[in-house]
């Protein structure tokens, strides 16, 4: 289930760290945010090393739908209401500049990454009032946004918001080019950070500045990001023989679809849910049903899924990691908008490190707390954690081992102990602990991806117990 980006890109491998090194800045995480941050720092003459636990682009950058847009759902009317026009304007300007910065890099560096200028559109099949309000809010903030009822979609809509001057591209081809001249150590997992030292499984890196661009920060304290983030998953089908689209689309109704064209393929996304809440599965089937309805001649060429960090108030955390760690920096909470957020983060963090602070970076400051926009999500996230911890401690097993059918997983009673068990089609059994090594929440089975997912903070493991997604840093007990 690799994305089309992964299957069409070869990124040259880099060596692992061997022993201890020093640099002015250490960037942790080889996704787009980390690579762009390292790139801009190097351009300004800052000696920088980048550490990646796996391979460059092996995380969420390779699973995105790769829309380069400042249109981030029904956001701007919310930001104006909760942060005021100045705060909302900072967000809008930063993301509009991010789109322009991508365009400049692609053109100046002649990067072959399928860059295409396309409008980005929100749509609704239920009603147009909120979309009219969103178009007006974005226009007030200087974005070329218009409300319309005319789209190229294969179904009628009540309304749509069209952002002009947006784009789409191939994210890994872009990343591969930008990373070529960087000092990168792959296969080097950061285990902990102590002051100015990053301790990895291959050696230590001493740096004046340390950037956490690891999707979800793996250090719990200081910062306490595990209290201010949760993760969500979404799913994508790549379809052949489907009608191409000139624009990029996102439905704002419950169950709305994401659409964009890539070459001869139509990318159809949706089926989102909080990580750890998909035991019933069927997310890909929902997309297949939509494909059958609207493009009956289409054929599924690929499928994959993505994971997104969701902040409390709808704005990423970009800036100083914590007041008690003034030389640590963080970029997380990008929601569904990792492309422009990565560029925004790289610009803000590079400015902070080199003494050129971005005035529009204030809205992203990680130490903010806006009660009105955060209280509901804080209460929900806290409740999910308490529920999961309680289940881990007290809930009975969900099924007996002999009742588990081949090709399925579940929590069963193994000699009086709860275990996560997957039984493959040949009836071979894989048993692992269902206690997440991050903070002890009970993992849940994801039948669409045959993985064990944490509903608290989004760590994920394959059915053998091997780590897939952080903030956990180790495999499950009992894994092979």
UniProtKB/TrEMBL annotation:
It comes from the Bacteria. Keywords: 2Fe-2S, Disulfide bond, Iron, Iron-sulfur, Metal-binding. GO terms for cellular component: cytoplasm; membrane. Coiled coil: none annotated. Pfam families: DAO (PF01266), Rieske (PF00355). InterPro entries: FAD-dep_OxRdtase, FAD/NAD-bd_sf, Rieske_2Fe-2S, Rieske_2Fe-2S_sf, Rieske_Fe-S_prot_C. The keyword Mitochondrion does not apply. Gene3D superfamilies: D-Amino Acid Oxidase, subunit A, domain 2 (3.30.9.10), FAD/NAD(P)-binding domain (3.50.50.60), Rieske [2Fe-2S] iron-sulphur domain (2.102.10.10). Residues 396-480 form the Rieske domain. GO terms for molecular function: 2 iron, 2 sulfur cluster binding; metal ion binding; monooxygenase activity; oxidoreductase activity, acting on paired donors, with incorporation or reduction of molecular oxygen. This is FAD dependent oxidoreductase. It comes from uncultured Eubacteriales bacterium.
């Amino acid at each position: 289930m690799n994305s089309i980006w992964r299957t069409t890109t070869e990124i040259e491998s880099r060596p692992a760290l061997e022993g201890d090194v020093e640099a002015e800045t250490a960037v942790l995480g080889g996704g787009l945010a980390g690579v762009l941050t390292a790139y801009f720092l190097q351009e300004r003459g800052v000696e920088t090393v980048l550490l990646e636990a796996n391979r460059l682009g092996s995380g969420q950058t390779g699973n995105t739908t790769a829309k380069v847009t400042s249109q981030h759902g029904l956001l701007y009317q919310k930001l104006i209401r909760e942060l005021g026009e100045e705060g909302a304007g900072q967000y809008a300007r930063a993301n509009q500049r991010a789109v322009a910065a991508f365009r400049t890099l692609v053109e100046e560096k002649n990067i072959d990454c399928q860059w295409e200028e396309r409008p980005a559109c929100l749509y609704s099949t239920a009603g147009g009032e909120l979309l009219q309000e969103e178009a007006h809010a974005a226009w007030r903030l200087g974005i070329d946004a218009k409300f319309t009822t005319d789209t190229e979609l294969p179904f009628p809509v009540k309304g749509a918001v069209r952002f002009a001057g947006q784009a789409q591209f191939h994210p890994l081809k872009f990343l591969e080019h930008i990373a070529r001249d960087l000092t990168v150590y792959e296969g080097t997992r950061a285990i902990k950070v102590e002051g100015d030292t990053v301790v990895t499984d291959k050696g230590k890196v001493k740096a004046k500045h340390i950037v956490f661009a690891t999707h979800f920060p793996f250090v719990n304290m200081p910062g306490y990001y595990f209290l201010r983030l949760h993760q969500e998953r979404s799913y994508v089908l790549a379809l052949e023989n489907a009608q191409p689209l000139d624009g990029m689309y996102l439905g704002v109704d419950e169950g709305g679809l994401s659409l964009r064209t890539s070459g001869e393929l139509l990318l159809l996304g949706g089926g989102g849910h909080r990580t750890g809440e998909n035991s019933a599965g069927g997310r890909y089937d929902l997309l297949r049903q939509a494909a059958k309805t609207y493009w009956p001649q289409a054929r599924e060429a690929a499928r994959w899924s993505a994971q997104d960090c969701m902040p409390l108030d709808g704005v990423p955390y970009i800036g100083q990691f914590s007041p008690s760690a003034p030389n640590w920096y963080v970029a997380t909470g990008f929601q569904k908008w990792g492309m422009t957020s990565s560029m925004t983060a790289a610009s803000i963090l590079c400015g902070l490190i080199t003494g050129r602070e971005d005035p529009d970076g204030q809205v992203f400051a990680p130490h903010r707390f806006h009660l009105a926009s955060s209280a509901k999500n804080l209460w929900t996230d806290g409740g999910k954690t308490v529920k999961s911890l309680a289940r881990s401690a007290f809930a009975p097993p969900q099924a007996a081992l002999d009742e588990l059918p081949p090709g399925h997983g579940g929590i069963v009673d193994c000699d009086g102990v709860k275990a996560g068990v997957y039984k493959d089609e040949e009836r071979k059994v894989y048993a692992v602990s269902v206690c997440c090594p991050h903070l002890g929440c009970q993992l849940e089975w994801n039948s669409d991806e045959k993985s064990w997912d944490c509903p608290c903070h989004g760590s994920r493991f394959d059915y053998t117990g091997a780590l897939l997604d952080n903030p956990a840093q180790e495999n499950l007990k009992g894994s092979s």
